[in-house]
Amino acid sequence: MGRIKSALEIALERTEAVKTDKASIGLFEAKQQGKRLANAFLADLSKNLEDELKKYPQDQWESLKQGIFEVLAPQITLPAAAEDLPRIEAVGKGLQLLIKDGRFAAMYKQFIQVLSQYLGEASQFEQAIRQQYAPKLRQKEEELSRRMGREVRIDPFQDPEFAAFYNQNLNALRANYQAAVDQVRDEAQRIWDAATTSL
Description:
The protein is mostly helical. It is built from seven helices and no strands.
């Protein structure tokens, strides 16, 4: 009758064939550090990403850059408000550090102008939608005031009908500009992929 093996012995036998590749672990850790660098950069736009990168050994730079790219590329988005524009501009500067391509830099500069135009149009859209919906909102306020016996004011965004009308119209505007976002993000990915596969 054979000897019964302990769980530890079985586990050790199974992991015997698995050898740790210290180089792969180091590159993975460098990539994770790159992600942390990118997130710190986004949290404090005054940081210089290039200076931060230079603090690491050059043999880790590719992995660090991969991590930075994976955090920055998804940040190419439509701004929700004008306050988002500096962050999106900083994302472009960070990507230009990784993607040394003058055409991408020029494209990103135009992209920022397009985003400024989008914010202007979104603001005009909102004003136009509010003006267009104002008579209907006043009618609802008057009806509620009559029923309740006191003056009632309704925040347009608390009115489900207005919110649906607003979102429908603003989503059409967003869809028009989303194509520009997708184009810039795709171009960044294409250039990045081409640069990293040629290494």
